[in-house]
Amino acid sequence: MNIAVNRSGSKWVDFASAGNGTPGGTFLRKFWQPVYQSSQLPRARAVPIHIMGEKFTLYRGESGAASVVGFACAHRNTQLSTGWVKGDAIQCLYHGWTYDGSGACTSRPGENPPGPCADVKIPAYPTREHLGLIYAYFGAGEAPAFPPFPAFEGGVIENSVDLFPCNWFQTYENQIDEVHVAFVHSPGGSHNALGRGIDLPDTVAEETAFGMVRHTSAKKGPVRDTLYVFPNTMRIIIPAMSGMGELGGWRDTYITLVPTDDENHLLFITQHAQITDAQMEEYLEIKARFEKKVAESRPPHLVAQDILDGKYTLADVLEHPKLLVIEDAVAQSGQGRIADRGIEHLGRTDVGIVRMRRVFDRELRAIIGGKPLKDWRYSGEPPARGF
Q1: Whole-number Cα distances in Å, 286 to 105, 113, 233, 279, 376
Q2: Is there a contact between 335 and 319 (Cβ–Cβ < 8 Å)?
Q3: Model pTM greater than 0.90?
Q4: CA dihedral 19, 354, 268, 90 (to 10 degrees)
Q5: Is 247 exposed, middle or buried (0-12, 13-18, 19+ CB in 10 A)?
Q6: Quick one: angle between helices 323-333 and 168-175, nearest 10?
Q7: Which of 115, 132, 226, 362 has the highest CB neighbour number within 10 Å of its CB?
Q8: How far, CA to CA in Å, does 143 sit from each of 59, 84, 120?
Q9: Which three-class secondary structure state does DSSP give residue 160?
Q10: Helix-then-strand count for the chain, H and E
Q11: pLDDT 10s digits, 290-337
Q12: CA distances, 146 to each of 32, 216, 337 (Å)
């Protein structure tokens, strides 16, 4: 068991590890995890995915149903995603062995007989779709109730996925730390247009039935509530993407952090834009311009690495459409791909981080000791914007 010792002498269980069989990986696997953006997977297409230190095959059948199965064919262990989707099954490129969404082998063309083989099976995982994302369950036993959180009603659902070049828990800690916004994102940065300046909020963080809630307020203003739906989702009210202005209002947003391995993770963002029919044409034009600019720009994680390498500064990339993502990636990856919590000097502004670590420490120690975990349940209550 990897334990870090902080300055005060208290010990934390290793939060970083997400591999199968590790305490952190076991915790994450008890919940549905998003693995891909629905719109990016057309019918009859297969792709490889890398989730929590393991490789899998994701494909969409000709009926439209998405399936997650093992990475390799059971015959000669070649990569299944290089093959073909046939109906709602996937056929291996190498010798044509075919598997359905349950992992069962339905055909072996070169064998006698060439049909199904009950003795051959590859792993398969419950797969569902919700709010524009494909989810899978990788844990033991029966999958928990789906969806993991309620849908939005009306308007438009926006989705994006970005690779972050650091351990996922660093980003989750960053999300509960609102003080960083005043320095990482403004003034002059991605939050400059909000006119917030150096605005240091007071923070209260507490455990809830679903995870944690952070209450923040600045200059005796209204309280802003941000929800942390365990184990790796934040629900928050935030401004629209660059160039959108007030169109669609501030977005009710789910952000879920899914490790690809211990040193990288995917940041899935799902937002609710309150776009009316009368606004739709304008909205789609702005959205298309934004997506074109994103496609023409270097990926945020590569830009962040260039900044960390001293090739650029944040001031050089202020026009990047995903400046906020770059800012966060620089700050969090600047801690190292896996942060060393044993050399930190925590202060008053870290109250949310400390309380989050205590809850995770308790749950991971329960996993290590074979004890029951808390029954985390989210009833769908929304956060409060607060400003």
Answers
A1: 47, 57, 28, 11, 39
A2: no
A3: yes
A4: 20
A5: middle
A6: 110
A7: 226
A8: 20, 28, 24
A9: strand
A10: 6, 21
A11: 999 999 999 999 999 999 999 999 999 999 999 999 999 999 999 999
A12: 8, 31, 32
State CA 326 to chain mean position distance.
16
Alpha-helix runs per DSSP H in 177-322: 280-296, 300-308
DSSP state of 181: I
Q: Which amino acid is at 105?
A: C
Q: Is the separation of the CB atoms in 41 and 133 below 8 Å?
A: no
CB atoms near residue 10 (< 10 Å): 12
Q: How far is CA 249 from CA 224, 230, 237, 271, in A?
A: 17, 27, 10, 11
Encode pLDDT of 26-65 as tens digits.
999 999 999 999 999 999 999 999 999 999 999 999 999 9
Which fold, 156-368?
Answer: Naphthalene 1,2-dioxygenase Alpha Subunit; Chain A, domain 1 (3.90.380)
Q: Are the beta carbons of 23 and 17 closer than 8 angstroms?
A: yes
Residue that the structure tokens 């944040």 belong to: 314
CA 133 – CA 343 distance, rounded (Å)? 38
| Secondary structure in 3-state letters for 295-361 | HHCCCHHHHHHHHHCCCCCHHHHCCCCCHHHHHHHHHHHCCCCCCCHHHCCCCHHHHHHHHHHHHHH
Domain range summary for the chain, segments of one domain joined by +:
32-136, 156-368
Cβ atoms of 360 and 11 within 8 Å: the answer is no
- Residue type (1 letter), 32: W
How many Cβ atoms sit within 10 Å of the Cβ of residue 152? 19
Say what the pLDDT of residue 383 is: 86
Between the CA of residue 328 and those of 131, 260, 266, what are the distances in Å?
25, 18, 13
Q: Where are the alpha helices (DSSP H) in the chain?
A: 23-28, 168-175, 280-296, 300-308, 323-333, 351-368
What tokens appear for 282 in the block? Answer: 């304008």
Residue 196's nearest CA partner among 207, 205, 183, 206 is 183
CA distances from 21 to 17, 152, 238, 306, 340 (A): 10, 35, 36, 34, 22
pLDDT of res. 198: 57
